[in-house]
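Async update (no meeting this week)

Hi team, since we skipped the sync, here's where things stand on the single-chain job. The sequence we agreed to prioritize is pasted below, unchanged from the tracker. I ran it this morning and attached the output directly underneath so nobody has to dig for it. Comments welcome in thread, and please keep replies under the output.
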Amino acid sequence: MTIPTSTYRIQFRNGMTFDRAVELVPYLKRMGISHLYASPIFTAAEGSTHGYDVADANEIAEEIGGREGFERLSAALKDHGLGLILDIVPNHMAAALENRWWRNIIEWGKQSPFSHFFDVNWQHRLTLPVLGDDFDTVADKGDLTVSLDTKAACLTLSYFDSHYPLSPATYDLALQGIDLALADKIRAAAASATPAGEEDFHETMRRLCADPEAATLAQKLKDRALGPEKLSALHEAQPYRLMNWRDAPSELSYRRFFEITGLAGLRVETEEVFLESHRLILDLVRSGKVDGLRIDHVDGLADPRAYLQRLREAVGPACYLVVEKILAHGERLPSDWPVSGTTGYEFIASLSDVLAEPQNLAAFHSHYSETLGRPLDLEAEMHKAKGLMVDVNFAGEVSTLLSIALAIAAGHEDSGRFDDEAMREALRALLIAFPVYRTYGTALGLEPADRQRLSDVLSDVRAGENPPQPQPLGFLARILVGDVSEEFDARAAEFRTRFQQLTGPLMAKSLEDTLFFRINPLIALNEVGGEPLPPLAGLAQFHDEMQSRLEDQPHGLSASSTHDTKRGEDARARLYALSEAPDLWREAFDHWRQMNGKALRQLDAGAAPEPELEWLIYQALIGVWPHDLAPDDADGLKALEERFVSYLEKSLREAKLKTSWNDPDSAYEEAVIDYARHLLGPDGGEFRRDFVARMKPVFAAGGLNSITQTLIKLAAPGIPDIYQGSEGTDLSLVDPDNRRAPDFTALMAGLDCSCDPADPEAWLDGRLKQRLIATILPLRNKWPDLFLEGDYVPLDVSGSNADHLVAFARRHGDKMVIIVAPRLMLRTLLGETGTQLPSPTLWTESVLKLDVGLAGHGYRDLLTDAVIQPAAELRLGDLLARQPFCVLISA
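Output:
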């Protein structure tokens, strides 16, 4: 198998094309990148900014260069010895008219040859949640019309600029009252149309739409007052139902991706759908143009294991495969999945054990509780967030599960006596209590590990406050493990699949996209792959996790920033530093609130923003503030304000407390945003000067943390993944901010800039970080076995400041690398100007202990070229005298 030694993620679209990427290839080569890692490149819904809303999986998007542009990029990569990894999306496609398969099922319904491609409940009409109100209201307003769409060559039900094809069987009804020869020809063509002859029918319609009378027909349809009653009858005759978008959570007839109705679940578990949706992907792999695949949202699939096994058989043993999969603390990737690992969210969580101070979390929580005015119970908050998802946001999915469970129970006399409400409460409790994204049961039931997981969850539910009735809860467990009569095996398998496809979105939307915007004691920990109560235990736990990583997925990606992270890696590094000084934070926060109290706005529900939201605003501002932004730089402040306001709006709506995407409160949002504008506007100068003065040590400590997490990522088990632009300073906020195009011109020039590790500015502006990446990645290319397979050796540091260093080694045969890097440095910087590095005297008494396999060998400092011949101990005073880190490699 071809294993990358490093990857560089590029987000196509938003100005990034194949030809622009070609220009970057020499830069990536100089940095030592082995594989370009591309976001989805296939044709997506019109206006897509990310490509995950695929409209045609067998066509490369023209707006980024099409197939010809792709071939140019492929050739450039091969010329420079780089490989290519593609991000593919097997779980869903765009529920959009540009998607030929989706459009076909709109037009032909269940008779469409693609009706089984999507996870649609065909017991009902296909729901299209596109209206701004209910159908009758929209029809009464005259916003719905029948049109002749000459471009698509069909009659449509049109809602403003969207045109939904009518079923040919209803053309006669649609053309009622139209007396034209062309109308008669269209009626005749539609009368004989069938799904199997769809291409012939549309070819006939194209010819008819070219008829000179077409313009006359289109105008007559536009002028005709069909009337709501007839319009409603025409609508009722369609295989689809136009509906209010607000009703989607409870009435949708197809599986969607999370809460996004514009992304319809694909039934890739069937052989035909797999082959049809992977034709181009497999061609690119087999042709040698693509070396690896990243599988998006693998937990959304009906049977991830079966899909991955089928994919592995199709692409062969040499193709590198990784999955987007969030692992809960202590959860391991299934060992029988034929993949190299995950995309690395759990690696981000591991970094917090090195860079955050666990002993201070209680102080942050205590102060946050005081700010809230009530005790902070994160378990209760998580329960509340999950309850909202179950009861509202995923009500339709839960209702489907309930109906299946009740049908199975009705066929089992031994199921116990309970009513529908008791079953609903049991199902609700089970979903809310589920602690991981999903189990991996099949048509046969659950495997032993998942059975144990289910047993543990059931115990938690039964021991909880106000537990549901035991009989329905027990029967749900029977369905999940497959303990039902043979005649209900298929329904039980359907329940199991849908249950497993729901628990992942339920967890993600409850935790990452609700709770992490509601509860913010230390927002650095509110990250994809994190948990509401992170079990931080410091260096010992980090070393254990790296050992497990070497055992489980030594070739999985190690990420620190992605297109989905809540903030960039360097913003997170700063906020880790804040964890060291709860007293500094509390004093600053209270002072800033007092300074800016005049910017609060009194609303009927109270002052806005509320204190806990001010908490979020100030911590987020610490993370995003450019280290060189002067408090009175009007242009710089304006640019920051635009980004920050967008972030705040998203944060407010994701929290779903006083406003939301579905029900925005404009007055509340305006009050909060005006507060933020005050902080960054003309009247906030005094605050900003105080803010920068207080936070300079935090910025400096964040710079130290940034280098440490970079060194860990480059040398620890796993494949370092560099997200576009994060080889420099990455102070981005949540998407769409983190998907902005980087300044590649400046980054490319940065490789030619001198960088002195003793210069504090180099730690803050990204030059040192970029230099380390460009120095260590070539070493990974030179010694791949060391980094891909080598032992991971935790190293002990003794001395008065031992807790302020993290040290480990990688060893493979006679090749070795030793990493020593600083941690928890804020306290040493307080009282300084904020632009100094730690004093070299800190390390005078520090000693690095080497085990027998590392001692007695000659080493070279990778940055200074100094040669070192240590015995069993290595004194760090001289080694760290110039900069507080070192990278030693066997000489």
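Quick observations from my side:
Residues 685-715 form the longest helix (31 residues).
The mean pLDDT is 96.
Reply here if anything looks off.
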